[in-house]
Specification:
It contains six helices and five strands. The strands form two sheets. The chain has a three-stranded mixed beta sheet, with helices on one face. The protein has a two-stranded parallel ribbon with strand order 4-5. It is α/β, with parallel strands linked by helices. Helices cover 41% and strands 11% of the residues. It is elongated and about 125 Å long. The termini are far apart. It has helices at residues 2-27, 31-51, 78-84, 143-147, 154-167, 184-190, and strands spanning 55-62, 68-73, 108-111, 136-137, 194-195. The chain folds into three domains: 2-51; 55-111; 136-195, Orthogonal Bundle (DNA polymerase, domain 1). Strand 1 and strand 2 form a beta hairpin.
Amino acid sequence: MNESLQKKILATTAGLIIAGCGFYVYSSSPKEEILLDDPVEISESIQEVEEDPDKIVVYITGAVKNPGVIEIPEDSRVLDAVNAAGGVTAEADLESINMAQKVRDGQHVTVPEIPDPNSTVPIRQNSSSKSSGGLVNINTASESELISLPGIGAATAKKIIDYRETNGAFIEIEDIKKVRGIGESKFQSMKDLITT
């Protein structure tokens, strides 16, 4: 009986040792290294995509060397659009365009040419003069032209100019109500005299 019991104990011990060795070999398998490498590579590729700047598309015409549809980084200004179009030509009227104004996706930017002194067309075609029947373009009008509108003083005219330089051009005439100090009543008094 004692010898039989000893054999059983030895057999059980040997089985445990073999099982332990098998577990050790399996646990030291290089599979863990492969699983650890994958998340690092994925996170690096995501980071590269996130660092790419967003783009906007702008249509630029007028006195530029390469007019057409261009793609520029988001938060660009008119100057960036002009440079992307090859720069201005010798005929560009730089006094009539705000190079610091921000541009938005889908915007049409026009660089005006210097007026021909021999032309019979008035220099300011959007004059607010009632005799000519013209309209004041709230996107390009000077401070003095804006003051000519009913209910608009020097302070409000400056707010209009500051607003369009900060936020971009007015899309429709109703957008002028976004300027602080211009309510519905003022808008109604000038709506037939302005354009965008």
